[in-house]
# Entry
Amino acid sequence: MKLKRTLSIILCTVMLITCTVVAGTNFVSAADTEQAVTSATDKSYSGMQESLKTNSGLAPTVNDGMILQAWNWSFKNIEAKLEKIAAQGFTTVQVSPPNEVKEGTKNIHYLEPKGVNNGWWMYYQPAGFQLNESSDNALGTKSEFESMCKKAHSLGVKVIVDTVINHMGTCDNEDSITSTNPLDHLTPKAKTFEPEIVNNKAFHTPWQNCTYDEDPNRFNQYQSTLSMTRHCTSRLPDLDTSSTVVQTAIYDYMTEIIKSGADGFRFDAAKHIETPDDCSPFASQFWVNTLQKVRQNNPDVECFAYGEILNTCGVGRKFQSYTKFMDVTDSSGIWSISDAVRGKGGNPVPFYPSDNFTKENCILWDESHDTYTDGSTTGYTVDQRNKIWALSAGRADITGVYLARPSDATNTNACYTTLLGEAKDASWSNSTTKAINQFSNYFVGDGEYCNNDGNRAWIERGDAGCMIVNLKGTSATVSLKNHNLKTGSYKDAISGNTFTVSNGYIKGSVGSTGIAAIYFDGGDVPTDTTGVTPPLDEGTIIFSNSRRWEGTINYYCWNDDGAKAEWPGEAMDYYQVNEYGEVQYIATIPEGYTYFIINNGSSQTVDIPFTGSIGVYPLETTDASGHYEVGTWEIVVPTTEPQPTYTEPIPTETVTTPTETSTEPLEDTYIVGVVYPGGDDVAIYDATFIQKKLANIIEFDADQMRGGDVDENEHVEIVDATIIQRYLAKYDTGTRCGQRVPISSYPLKK
# Structure
């Protein structure tokens, strides 16, 4: 919810009321704000280049680096591309499930015509839990797997295995079987490869397809856990993972994988396997007796693991039950990022930690093989996927997975012409992906500070690097609020452009990819400021995009002799973000023009009289033609470059609230109105954080709830943000805003 302005506004067709802009404070919008906790003072662009000369610059562990999902690639073809994978900055390669499967996959395409019972998904139908030795498997044999792992390690590349251990494959005529006996649905090959499991009937019975019913109004925790862990996922016979025979088979399989050279696992359908925390009678020690035991018995191997857990774990089931053992996929986070990149809302820099995730246990990705083949992400362009990847791999402590598509086309036609086992170059091998990965590797161990203004998102790493993504297009001149980067010049590893950091701002031009990965490149700020935020001049107009119009913002001006340019006019330059979270644009109207209109080609303002420098923002109301009426404020053009912001007129009589002096120890007091982490005085950021909390972008802890409840009515509401703004404008708020008071005086008891 957006704050209402408390300053006076004008209806351009009715009257003008102006207020003066004298100072500025920027706004942190729709982002988490996490201070860097480590210094990168010894890091620079030249240092990064030097490190690449002496080694691949890869991260030291799977957990620290980025993963290439070599989807359906054979072990031989992966081995042939390992030098390129390392050069691209991928620390790890993830291979498709290497176990025995129910049907041969050689000379089979990723997708076969409708009615043909084969394709990529065959690898998710196990016939046995041992590395494949069958000659009809397109991925290859155990010896080829071992050879690939050996070469990977010689190049500093790690290997993890997509591991399918929740279920087994079906028989060919499964759809026609009505029996509730899971053995009747099981692939006949299971009797050959897993006779103990079959003979012990170690499957959940009766056979019942998983309902995925997670509605808490209809399903309680017991029913949800039953559905999640005991029913058949996608009609596949569900293993009794609580049984000793299954746990032994899976432990042996995982041990074989590690002993053959792998460094870890990806667990398919992880949420369908129970945990020790599950309610009775569903809890089991499966993860303790498999993954945890493998780690204990192989202390010299990283044994990294992450689990596929999409959306939720089910009613009453918590992600923390899995994060005790492994990292987990944050599907809500990645959809938020992709929505932001595609202009559909969303937060491009999701907040961590949350109740479910911390950065350290979170897995993000550009897309998954499921979303690619089911059409959810098929239409994403290379630029969009690169931006999603930059916002995933650019984060501190987060591990990312990049899908190696068979083609960059925005359809799945290549799946019908690419054979299982083939390894093709696509966006995983382009220069932008490489630059993003190298940035991620170089800043391992450095903290982050995330920000976005709705048009751009940027991730500062330590004090010497920043990943910048233009959410609204490609090339763009930017002026972004800086928090931790040291003053100086910076080099973009993608475009080669120079950026500068000074006076609290990061300035420069993002190249044609819409992404910049900038590194500190020197101590002096260049005097050439071409392409950065212009200063205020006579005739300046500033437009605050309060209605969040998309696309290019134009100004169209004219006088009795005609217009300066044809409709829709000329593009305005990006200027800054004000304290309301509105992106501001700037332009200069030459002397002699008497009217102007702001527009984006479809929406526009009413005709606005031009009598000198002025700030404008569209209101919610329109005239009879559907053109937006506007509010304005006066711009005072100084001799130095300011950062304009809105302030309320200071009243002629100001009532000063006496300051209460607390005798309580500082740790037993708080400042009313302070919610910004580490804040020691009330500031505009505190109002901003309240807005973000109410928009469900961030969560408040108990201290923030107390500080944010400015009117002390036991709730944090939009009125609390308004009170903070009035306090900053030196109005009497009738509250204790700004005062340090004892915690014991706060009325909230719960």
